[in-house]
Amino acid sequence: MKNMISTKKLSNYAYNVYSQFGEDGIIERIFKILGTSSKVCIEFGAWDGFYLSNTANLWINGWKGILIEVDEVKYKSLVENVKKYDCHCLNTFVSYEGPNTLENILKREEISDDIDFLSIDIDGDDYYIFESLKELHPRLISCEYNPTIPIHMDLISEKGNYFGCSALSLVKLAEKKNYRLIAITDTNCFFVRSIDFKKFETYDTNLESIAPTKHLTYFITGYDGNYILSKKPTYGCTRPSTQKFIGEYYAFQVKNSGDSNPNLFKKLFFSFKRRVIQLKMKLLQTRLARTKRNQIIAFNALRNNFYNIYNNLKKYDIDQFTTPLWENYNTKLEKVFLPYPPFSFLRDPIIMSTMFVTSGGRWLKEELTFLEKKNSKDKLKFLLQEEYVGMPLLLNFTYPTSHNSIHHLYHLIRFLDKTKCNLDQINTIVEWGGGYGNMAKIFKRLKSTPSTYIIIDTPLFSSIQWLYLATILGEESVNLLQNYEDSIHAGKINLIPICFVDRHKISADLFISTWALSESSKFSQDYVVTHEWFNARHILLAYQDKSNKLPDAERVGKIAKDIGAVIEDIEFLPGNYYAFR
Fold it and tell me: Per the domain annotation, does 430 fall within a domain?
């Protein structure tokens, strides 16, 4: 009964490094609970090793990979890409019967039965591959299903198909093999052996409550037989299937229109158009995969220096600048980032709770509606699209982006709209408290001409900003001050740990603080005021008027009024305000 009422889902831990629908994060979480034995994983249909892989994030981190790919061109790329990892590559076809069943292939290669993870993903015969397993008992199995089939339907296509099966059919098959469902993504079901299922009893594993429904398309009919679809089908809608199925379904027949001479040119045109779209998608996926891979390589190279950089900075005293709340956050974040930050660090609960909104609602809707009125869709895609590093939670897939990026761009566009400020005249920006560096990234995209950007923050966040921004922009674009003698570099993003701020004469065209100043100590607030907002001609503040945890928060509003800033309340965020000058 515990399992039925649990609100925890393994899908809450989803993130992608190489996977498509968050499988990397789910797999990582499962093995934290399940434990490992051999650290051997198997994937067939392996492509080049990295493309939409469910195992790459394992074998690049010390696992042994058994990677099978039948296509010779892809196989050559596979061998080249994984040569520095512990991977055993096979150029063969996996079948559900005969000499090329997975178990027969593994026997020929003298690979033992001790497998921790098996990924079955071949776009069709996945059910029959799973069914063919007799002696192989991996600790975790992921198997592809067709997400356009309702979860209450037990539907399986004939062998040799390109249609797939329902999630329910896989769940029933798994139970016959003493496996139980624990998680599901847009295309994959995850099963563990029944003996291990109890380890997941605090998670919701009920198919009906955890299965995604966004790929379901409803066929709706009028009383006279006319019909509509609820939305565009995920995989298109070209013709009735001629395949045979196991399960109850209706074989839809299109009435003969009487047109004995179909328009051949129209058919050829739409066939060509579909092919062009497919090629564009393939190119886009290749480009995104390459970007992801490059950022992982850059991040892994940089993170080795993170420990030394932060250890050097943390020895400087910043007590007067901080509050007990952020001292507590800092202690918790040290456990996450030291000695080596994880690639998915933006999924950490502290960063998620302080910098991201993890649900939509009115906040996201209001801000995005405003931005869409002020910018074209293509421009918004450029400004808002997230980077892979950190694996931020995406809440909007049109662009695609997180609410944090929507929020930061909204700040900037509201400021420009309200003050009529000429962005070209903003050459130096000072941001007080920069999070992980996202506002600086957004500003650099918004203003194409060179500018000097300065972020003043605690040593830990200065180190995090360096890691994030240097990964996406390159080390040469970011200047982290690590000693009293270090200087600010024009045209770069300069990260100034707050312990060094008093050693520099800083003058800005624009001062930005999005809640950070109202979350700072009274000493920090007075420091900014006595330094006249770093001589900034323009000011963009977002602040809390009252906060039980932050007794100095409401001072920021009073300070802003004293300098003649225009104050606006944020209607959809009660108790929060903007100040523009």
Answer: yes
Which secondary structure element, helix H or strand E, spans residue 441, and what is its range?
helix 438-446
Tokens 């679809």 locate to: 229
Q: Say what the pTM is.
A: 0.55
* CA dist., res. 273 & res. 166, Å (int): 30
Q: How far apart are CA 70 and CA 76, in angstroms?
A: 10
Tell me the residue range of the domain where 15 lies. Answer: 2-210
In a domain, 252, yes or no: no
Are 164 and 310 in a shared domain? no
How do beta strands 87-90 and 245-246 pair?
unpaired
> How many structural domains comprise the chain?
2
Backbone angles phi, psi at 578, to 5 degrees: -115, 150
Listed residues 210, 236, 259: the one ending a domain:
210
Q: Do 550 and 416 fall into the same domain? A: yes
User: How far is residue 260 CA from its own chain's centroid?
Assistant: 50
Q: 374: alpha, beta or left, given left = phi > 0 and alpha = psi -120 to 50?
A: alpha
What span, in angstroms and rounded, lies between the C-alpha atoms of 44 and 75?
11
Is 275 domain-assigned? Answer: no
Please compute, for residue 507, the number of CA atoms within 13 A of its CA located in the half-sphere on the CB side: 1
Nearest to 94 by CA among 73, 77, 118: 118
Is residue 554 within 8 Å of 545, Cβ to Cβ? Answer: yes
Boundary-marking domain end, from 175, 210, 245: 210
Which segments within 32-126 are labelled E, that is strand?
Answer: 40-44, 64-68, 87-90, 117-120
76: CATH: 3.40.50.150
Taking the CA atoms of the chain, what radius of gyration do you get in angstroms?
27
Q: Are residues 10 and 146 in the same domain?
A: yes
Contact 433, 513 (CB under 8 A): yes
Q: Measuring CA to CA, how many Å separate 76 from each of 69, 289, 431?
A: 9, 18, 48
- What span, in angstroms and rounded, lies between the C-alpha atoms of 239 and 522? 68
pLDDT in 10s for each residue of the chain, 581 residues = 444 455 689 999 998 888 988 999 999 999 999 999 999 999 988 888 988 899 999 999 999 999 998 888 888 889 999 999 999 999 988 888 888 899 999 999 888 778 999 999 887 889 999 999 999 999 999 999 999 999 899 999 888 777 889 999 999 999 999 999 999 999 999 999 999 999 999 999 999 999 999 989 888 888 877 888 888 888 777 667 777 788 777 665 544 444 444 455 555 555 665 665 555 555 555 555 667 778 888 888 888 889 889 989 988 888 888 888 788 888 888 888 888 888 888 888 888 877 876 655 677 788 889 999 999 989 999 999 999 898 888 887 788 888 899 999 999 999 999 899 889 889 999 999 999 999 999 999 999 888 999 999 999 999 999 999 999 999 999 999 999 889 999 999 999 999 999 888 899 999 999 988 888 888 988 899 889 899 999 999 988 876 655 666 777 878 877 787 888 877 767 778 788 88
Q: How far apart are CA 353 and CA 348, in angstroms?
A: 9
Task: Please give the Cα distance from 25 to 31 (Å, whole number).
Answer: 10
Which tokens in the block code for residue 186?
Answer: 């847009």
